[in-house]
Specification:
two-stranded parallel sheet; Aspartate Aminotransferase, domain 1; globular; 7-stranded mixed beta sheet; 2 domains; alpha/beta; Aspartate Aminotransferase, domain 2
Length: 394
């Protein structure tokens, strides 16, 4: 039986991490895998999370299962964070999942279960696993233009032109903030235009929000999600706590589904529980419990928000300083987009050959499509990175 299996393509981003780890050069710089790192190259445990873990260790009395859809306290705390008061909660159903990846997978599986034959539309480019999951679940996929590779900005005219082709009932995936891999985001006016168009088309938005608080702030980064939630009868959200709570290995994610009315929401809730049961039964709880504790304790929440803001401002500072260093090296402002982008990533405009050259000749690792992780751009490495980028002709 097993001999009949076909070899699957290796994940190139995970493979990049293995190459970096095997590189003996002490000058190597990791701008590849999408994990936040501080100035020392570490991925720290946030202060509030550490405090919550200590409290949980002292207070927890059981390791029995939570509900099939996860703990209600986690659902409500995350809904407050993402929605605020933008939506009637009676129309909302939830499902805790193993990470944001699990949430994306389950939503796409749920779309297939509807039997409507709906297409799922993704931005071009998008996070690589989006397309891989859709292919694995075997749903029809379309792409819409998103990024202007020449100007390193949103190609909004192209985006609108492609979204005009969306059919009623199709699902359109939008990055809630901090677009991965480009770092280029919609402004408020553009969010409004996209919302009006999709509403007129009868499409269903699917927001993937993995970086709330990494872009312009916790409230600002939720703008597009809240706008659409207040307008649409149906909507999906896949939320991840990996980045903004720093709990990557705890695999803490959540599906939020918005239905037209409370009755439909109850049916949706039952189907979400069914999907969990078929895939892994009960979701993990440790990370979700920590997030709930942080979000519902005023002191912990304030400390978490303050540390998250430090992280956000640190990445903005790195963006600005790298843009300045590149301008000094090349004598033009063609890298000014770095200071305008938001979140952990930007596409710098490198070809795959130039990416290889950066790795082989300068020990600088970034993803093959020219995506660099801004969190890896520490102050002491900025000049080295800038010189290497210009040296390879980007």
């Amino acid at each position: 039986m097993l001999s009949s299996l076909k070899k699957q393509p290796a994940d190139r981003i995970i493979g990049l991490s293995a190459l970096y780890n095997a590189d003996p050069r002490d000058t190597k710089i990791d701008l590849g895998v999408g994990v936040y790192k501080d100035a020392g190259g570490n991925t720290p445990i946030m202060r509030a999370i550490k405090t919550a873990e200590q409290r949980l260790w002292n207070e927890e009395t059981t390791k029995t299962y939570t509900a099939m859809i996860g703990d209600g306290g986690f659902h409500n705390a995350m809904a407050d964070l993402i929605f605020a008061d933008s939506v009637d909660r009676s129309r909302v159903s939830f499902c805790a999942t193993p990470g944001g990846t699990g949430a994306v997978h389950h939503v796409i599986e749920l779309v297939k279960m509807t039997g409507t034959g709906a297409k799922v539309w993704f931005s071009d480019p998008t996070w690589g696993n989006h397309l891989s999951i859709a292919k694995h679940v075997n749903v029809p996929v379309e792409k819409y233009t998103y990024f202007d590779a020449k100007n390193r900005s949103v190609n909004f005219d192209g985006m609108i032109s492609d979204l005009e082709k969306v059919a009623s009932g199709d699902v359109v995936v939008l990055h809630g903030c901090c677009h991965n891999p480009t770092g280029a985001n919609l402004n408020k006016a553009q969010w409004g235009q996209v919302a009006e168009l999709l509403l007129a088309k009868g499409a269903i938005p699917f927001i993937d929000i993995a970086y709330q608080g990494f872009g312009d702030g916790l409230e600002e980064d939720a703008y597009g999600t809240r706008l659409l939630a207040g307008m649409f009868p149906e909507m999906f959200i896949a939320a991840s706590c990996s980045k903004n709570f720093g709990i990557y290995r705890e695999r803490c994610g959540l599906i939020i589904a918005l239905s037209a009315d409370a009755g439909t929401s109850a049916i949706t809730q039952g189907n979400l529980a069914y999907v969990n049961r078929q895939n892994f039964s009960f979701p993990p709880d440790h990370g979700a419990r920590l997030v709930t504790m942080v979000l519902t304790d005023p002191e912990l929440r304030a400390d978490w928000a303050a540390e998250l803001e430090e992280v956000r401002l640190g990445m903005l500072n790195a963006r600005q300083k790298l843009a300045q260093a590149l301008q000094a090296e090349c004598g033009s402002d063609r890298f000014g987009f770095l200071a305008e982008h938001r979140g952990m990533f930007s596409r710098i405009g490198a070809t795959e050959a130039q990416v290889d050259q950066l790795r082989d000749e300068h020990a600088i690792y970034m993803v093959f499509d020219g995506r660099l992780n801004i969190a890896g751009v520490t102050v002491d490495k900025i000049d080295t990175i800038a010189k290497a980028v210009i040296a390879v002709g980007i």
